[in-house]
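Loading example: each entry is read as two labelled lines plus one structure line.
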Amino acid sequence: MNVSVSGPKILFEIPVLGGIVITESIVCQWIFMVVIIGISLWLVKDLKVKNISRKQALVEKIYAMLSNMVESTMGKRGEKYKAYIGTLFVFSFMGSISGVLGFRPYTATIAVTGAMALLTFVLIQAASIKDSGVKGWLKSYAEPFAFMLPLNIISNAATPVSMAARHFGNITAGMVITALVYGALGSVSAALLQWIPSTILSSMTFLQVGIPAVLSLYFDWFGAFMQAFVFCMLTMVFIANACANEEA
Amino acid sequence: MNLLFLSEQATQGLFELNDLWTLVFTWINLFILYLVMKKFFFGKIQAMLDKRREEVDETYQKAETAESEANALKAEYDAKIAEATETAEAIVSNAVKTARAKETEIVSDARAKAAATMASAEAKIEIDRQKALNEVKEDISSMAVEIASKVIEREIQAQDHERLIDEMIDQLSKEQEA
């Protein structure tokens, strides 16, 4: 049995700044950016006010769901975050689901989920500064008591770390388990078929058909959706919490 | 199996340059994706929804305007109809009055005419009677004259005799009438 799960491969290197390394994760992102933008452009093609098509009904439904989710979590201020949350969700979901299409999911790279989580962190701090000013923001680190400062810093820093690790860990675990089960199923079917003299028939790893699809349903589809949802939800909740002064 | 979150060809470490580039490119990609999606997807949908809301508001406003206009028109028409009914009633009562007057006039006219006709008929009858009487008188007098002339066989002054006989007949008729 030979199962290998690896990090994203380096595809090429741009020889500037001491070599800009382009990995599988980045190329995958480019591919899915094109796919996402393509689908989005197709979806919003000839939007109408009246007599809407089925496609538009679907688009509106999705948009209403996003609006509801953002507004119920963030209130009125969610309006300006709607596009970002939507983008983040699609980016994360497509990244995780790309495993189904045979890609290495780019959300199974900590640098990618880390980048996403750092963006969330920046947004949280920005929201806090915007809400209570630089002074108030700095002061919020020393609340409720001055000696809480290190704890507050740790807890703030822990937010992006935990978010990045959660997303990365879930998708990577799914990827690893799927690979392990797939390899194991191959070994089992090989062991079952080894008495057949024909090498063609005995190498037919029939157990690898169908069973991994069930796992994929959970790890790829459900897991991808849940992680994208959780990531967006946390981003919204943290941003909303950061601006406690502003009337929601 | 090497460290999952490091690039395959990287030396083993927790985080190094390859991953930093992945991080930076992820930011760039996410930012570009965000801008494109905001402008061409979410923005478009929101614009369409805003437009729809505007149109709905406009439609409601139009409907309200139309309703108030209709109400104003209805009030106007009601007033007009009331006025028209009044006028119609006045016309009818006027007509009835006129008709009554005419009726009386016609009836009295007819009565007058009938009376006139009656009077003229009576006058005519009187004249006819007179005429007939005169004729009879003439006939009798001429017959009498003839008879007398035959009796006397002698020419008398016919005119004198006629006058004499007329006087006699007048006397007779007066006596008769009396």
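Chain B has one domain: 2-177.
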